[in-house]
């Protein structure tokens, strides 16, 4: 079996995944809202395509009736995941996506019981969000089984896509998020700052509400989790400013203006930028006695890695390698899953 539904195939990452899937002898059915955006790519790749809106329940059910797997690449996922997950539960179709949104992970996690009853897997976050960091978290937990604190961090050396930028716009004004004693806890934007060496010298990183604040808890059971990202100084200062401008930045007219400006930008990194780019990850665990373990990952550029991990996971699900219910990448495929991809190097520091 090689066919699956790729929703959001006209987006930057969706198109990359469609092209790699074809190279890997898969036959995605391209899908989205607008046939004028989907049809040219489908014609070029010799693929079937379907267009439907997620507000039309009957159309969703018809589109999913004959497919074993859906891969949702249409972000922001806060606007698309709920309808597609509901459709997958009705159709008994496996659901995958490439989100990094904590609220989306938590909402999908709440559907574990219905998914188990339907015999399907709900696995959000099959891209850069959150495969490498989730595998790193699981690896660190294996190194220190008594860990009660987990800190993850990343440095993405490359440009972001329009879709990622729009998701970031939606998050403005919502502050940060950490996990404390197993509970998701709101904190100010860029709440903490620390210096981290990802393998190329020390850089400054700040806390962000990354998906692992949600998923790493399910993967490891560690109750206290923080995620950091390294940004240039102007970006860090801008994040701090959102503490005071959050109300303004959350207003629909302001959000819509920012999204229109983003739409006028290039879709995402060029092929050369993706080839030359790198993503670096760092993680640390500690237990109540003071024991610690630290590890790092070096990976390909984020969008390149997303296409690789997403297509591989689709292939595995099509081959019957899945666990019913809500899952995380490392719970299904193990902490070493990330090591299957060219350009990935893992290093244990202590």
Helix content: 40-55%
Strand order within the widest beta sheet? 3-2-1-4-5-6-15
Q: How many alpha or pi helices? A: 14
| Major sheet characteristics | 7 strands, parallel
Strand content range: 15-25%
Structural class of the secondary elements?
alpha/beta
Shape category:
globular
Distance between the termini: 44 Å
Radius of gyration: 19 Å
Strand tally: 16
Q: What is the N-to-C order of secondary-structure elements (H for helix, E for strand)? A: EHEHEHEHEHHEHEHEEEEHEHHHEEHEHE
Could you characterize what this model shows?
The N and C termini lie far apart (44 Å). This protein is an alpha/beta fold and 350 residues long. The strands form 3 sheets. Strands 3-2-1-4-5-6-15 form a 7-stranded parallel beta sheet, sandwiched between helices. Strands 10-11-12-7-13-14-16 form a 7-stranded mixed beta sheet. Strand 2 (27-32), helix 2 (35-45) and strand 3 form a beta-alpha-beta unit. It has helices at residues 12-23, 35-45, 57-64, 81-91, 102-109, 112-118, 131-143, 162-171, 212-220, 233-249, 252-263, 271-276, 302-318, 329-333; strands at 3-7, 27-32, 49-51, 69-72, 94-97, 121-123, 149-157, 176-180, 183-187, 193-197, 202-207, 224-230, 278-286, 292-300, 325-326, 345-348. It is built from 14 helices and 16 strands. Helix content is 42%, strand content 25%. Helix 1 (12-23) packs across helix 13 (302-318), helix 5 packs across helix 9 and helix 7 (131-143) runs parallel beside helix 9 (212-220).
């Amino acid at each position: 079996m090689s066919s699956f539904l790729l929703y959001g195939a006209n987006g930057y990452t969706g198109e990359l995944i469609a092209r790699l899937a074809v190279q890997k002898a898969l036959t995605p059915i391209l899908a989205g809202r607008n046939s004028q955006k989907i049809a040219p790519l489908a014609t070029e790749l010799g693929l079937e395509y379907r267009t439907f809106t997620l507000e039309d329940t009957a159309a969703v059910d018809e589109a999913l009736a004959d497919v074993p797997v859906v891969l949702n690449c249409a972000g922001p996922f806060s606007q698309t995941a709920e309808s597609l997950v509901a459709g997958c539960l009705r159709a008994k179709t496996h659901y995958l996506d490439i989100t990094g949104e904590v609220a989306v992970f938590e909402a999908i996690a709440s559907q574990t019981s219905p998914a188990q009853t339907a015999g399907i897997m709900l696995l959000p976050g099959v891209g850069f969000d959150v495969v490498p960091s989730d595998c790193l978290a699981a690896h660190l937990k294996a190194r220190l089984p008594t860990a009660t604190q987990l800190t993850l961090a990343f440095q993405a050396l490359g440009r972001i896509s329009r879709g990622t930028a729009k998701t970031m716009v939606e998050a403005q004004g919502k502050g940060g998020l950490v996990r404390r004693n197993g509970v998701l806890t709101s904190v100010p934007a860029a709440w903490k700052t620390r210096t981290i060496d990802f393998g190329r010298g020390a850089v400054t990183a700040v806390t962000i509400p990354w998906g692992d604040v949600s998923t790493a808890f399910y993967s490891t059971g560690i109750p206290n989790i923080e995620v950091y990202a390294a940004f240039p100084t102007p970006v860090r200062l801008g994040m701090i400013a959102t503490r005071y401008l959050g109300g303004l930045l959350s207003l629909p007219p302001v959000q819509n203006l920012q999204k229109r400006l983003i739409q006028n930008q290039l879709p995402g990194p060029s092929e050369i930028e993706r080839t030359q780019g790198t993503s670096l990850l760092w993680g640390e665990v500690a237990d109540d006695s003071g024991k610690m373990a630290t590890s790092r990952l070096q990976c390909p550029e984020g969008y390149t890695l997303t296409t690789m991990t997403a297509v591989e996971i689709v292939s595995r699900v099509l081959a019957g390698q899945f666990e019913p219910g809500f899952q995380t990448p490392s719970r299904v495929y193990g902490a070493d899953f990330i090591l299957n991809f060219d350009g990935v190097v893992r290093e244990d520091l202590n």
